[in-house]
């Protein structure tokens, strides 16, 4: 009989997926910044490649990467909770949102709070990370307030 033991690489697989998205974002930002006027001016002044990268390109990549990571945290929480809920994540002795919801599901008619409060905390955690990402995006890129350019 096959057992559905938790995969130890669940969070590792999620973080590798996020690393791929981060690398793609960093690469596209670097390619677009490489042809920017301020980089061309720095090259014309004779500034070296390493200094251009550290002083001009990397600071412009920091804010999109920070926003991407904070927005991906909510998605990673949902994925881990979903896997744990169906029995593929952490098992019930370990406190994980999905495992707590799955345990509380059996007692909804007699003890509704066993599923309600973990579900509420789970929802607030995911919403909090998404609001943090939105706030950081608005703070770090003020020219795109609310998704539309001013």
Provide a short characterization of the protein structure.
With 150 residues, this protein is an all-alpha fold. The chain has helices at residues 10-34, 37-44, 49-85, 97-105, 113-140.
Give your account of this protein's structure:
This protein is mostly helical. It has one domain. The protein contains 5 helices and no strands. It has helices at residues 10-34, 37-44, 49-85, 97-105, 113-140. It starts with 9 loop residues before the first helix and ends in a 10-residue tail after the last helix. Residues 1-6 have low confidence and may be disordered.
Notable characteristics:
mainly alpha; 150 residues
Rounded radius of gyration (Å):
22 Å
Shape, per Cα inertia axes: elongated
Largest sheet: none
- How far the N terminus sits from the C terminus, by CA atoms, comes to 60 Å
Please mark out the parts with pLDDT under 50 across 5 or more consecutive residues, or reply none: 1-6
Number of domains: 1
Into which percentage range does the β-strand content fall? Answer: under 5%
What's the structural blueprint in terms of helices and strands?
Elements lengths: L9 H25 L2 H8 L4 H37 L11 H9 L7 H28 L10
């Amino acid at each position: 009989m096959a057992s559905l033991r938790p995969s130890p690489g669940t969070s590792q697989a999620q973080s590798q997926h996020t690393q791929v998205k981060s690398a793609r974002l960093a690469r596209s930002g670097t390619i677009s910044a490489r042809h920017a006027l301020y980089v061309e001016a720095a090259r014309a002044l004779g500034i070296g490649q390493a200094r251009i990268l550290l002083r001009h390109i990397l600071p412009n990549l920091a804010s999109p990467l920070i926003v991407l990571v904070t927005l991906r945290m909510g998605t990673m929480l949902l994925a881990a909770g979903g896997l744990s809920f169906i029995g593929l994540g952490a098992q019930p002795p370990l406190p994980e949102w999905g495992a707590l919801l799955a345990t509380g599901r059996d007692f909804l008619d007699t003890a509704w709070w066993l599923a309600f409060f973990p579900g509420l905390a789970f929802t607030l955690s995911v919403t909090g990370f998404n609001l943090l990402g939105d706030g950081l995006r608005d703070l770090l890129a003020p020219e795109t307030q609310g998704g539309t350019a001013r």
